[in-house]
Amino acid sequence: NRMCWTVMKAGSVMKFIYGERELTLEFRENEVQVITIENREYFSAFLQNLYNQSQGSDGNIILQEGKNIISEKVAEIVWNPFSVDINNKKILGKLFQELKTVSMEDQYAEICELNTKVVHYLDDLNLKYPIDSISTGLDVLDLYKIYGVQLDTEEIDMFERLLEYVKVLKSLCGVGLLVFVNVKIICQKCR
Hints:
4-stranded antiparallel β-sheet
C-alpha cells in the first residue's frame, strides 16, 4: 500500500528539504512531482510534520527559493481534494482587493455616482424614520460581500476543480507550491 503526495510548482526552482531523512527535492516551474513514501510510519511522521508547519509550528521541512525561506503564504497543502473551495475566504479576499483596485482605477466615477444614490436613498429613509447615523463612504468591498460576488464555478468534476483551484491560487494569491496529499488514490485522471 503506497502513500503518495503530489507537488505542483509555478515559478522558478524551489528546493524542498526534509531534515529527518535528508530528503532534498528540486521543483521547477510548471512541473508536477509525485513522491511515493511506502513506509507508513515515515509517511505519517512526514505528514504530521507538514501539518504542524502549515499551522505555524516549527518542524523539519524547509522550502527554499534561491536563498530565501518561503513563508506559508506561498505554499498550500490540500489534505482533502473534496474540500477544495475555489471561493474560500483567502481567495475571495484577494479577489475583492483586485476588483477594488480595478474599480478605483477604471470605474471611480461610477462608484461616486453609486455612493451618491445610496446616500440619497438613506436620506429619504431618514425623513420617514430617524436613523442615528449614516456612513457616507461606500466601500466597494462591502458591496462585493452584499451581492455575494464569487468566482464562477460551474459543475465540473474534481480533477477540473483542482486545476481551476491551482490557477486561481497562483493568479490571485501568488501561491507557487501546492502539495496534494494522496490525491492519486481518489483522482483517476491524475495517474
